Amino acid sequence: MSLALRYEYVRENNFIENDDDIDTIVNRNQKDKLLSIVKEKNIAVGIHNENIIQLYVDNLGPFDIYFYDDLDNDDILIKWDDGPLYMKKDIYALKEIIFHNYKVYVPANPEAITVYVYGPNWYLPKSKSDMDYYPSWGNNPRQLKN
Fold first, then answer.
1. Which domains, from first to last, does the chain contain?
2. Per-residue CA distances from 128 to 31, 90, 116 (Å)
3. Which of the 8 DSSP states describes residue 94?
4. Which residues contact 34 (CB under 8 A, 6 or more apart)?
5. pTM for this prediction
6. Which of 2, 10, 39, 94, by CA, is between 20 and 30 Å from 103?
7. Distant-in-sequence, close-in-space partners of 97: CB < 8 Å, separation ≥ 6
8. How large is the C-alpha radius of gyration of the chain?
9. Are 18 and 106 in contact (CB under 8 A)?
10. What is the reported pLDDT for 3?
11. DSSP track, 8-27
């Protein structure tokens, strides 16, 4: 599932100006399998910690893969910058769309995911070079509380 595409698909129906990466999520229980493939295929790695791995393939990238935890309730937790909680029903079942002539999969409810991440003004056009482009998880009403 592409996290960036939810924003680009929902609001822009195009790529975001100056957006230079692809973001996706993988269940944490698949992390060892992914790392094994990265090593086997000799894929270049940028950032790598317990919550993210950044990959470069054939001089393309970065491809940011965030690891999520599937919680016992109806939530998914991405641990990054105080990470957001997403409702499983807003993500699954993924829906297939055609985006720039490519078949891709986006969350079941991309509008809800976009509001969780970018807040109620998500629909206002911005580029990645804008100072306030970057998400503020504080806007997420479903943020995990300590």
1. 3-139 (3.30.460)
2. 28, 25, 18
3. -
4. 26, 53, 65
5. 0.72
6. 39
7. 9, 103, 104, 105, 106
8. 15
9. no
10. 52
11. IIIIISSPPTT---EEEEEE
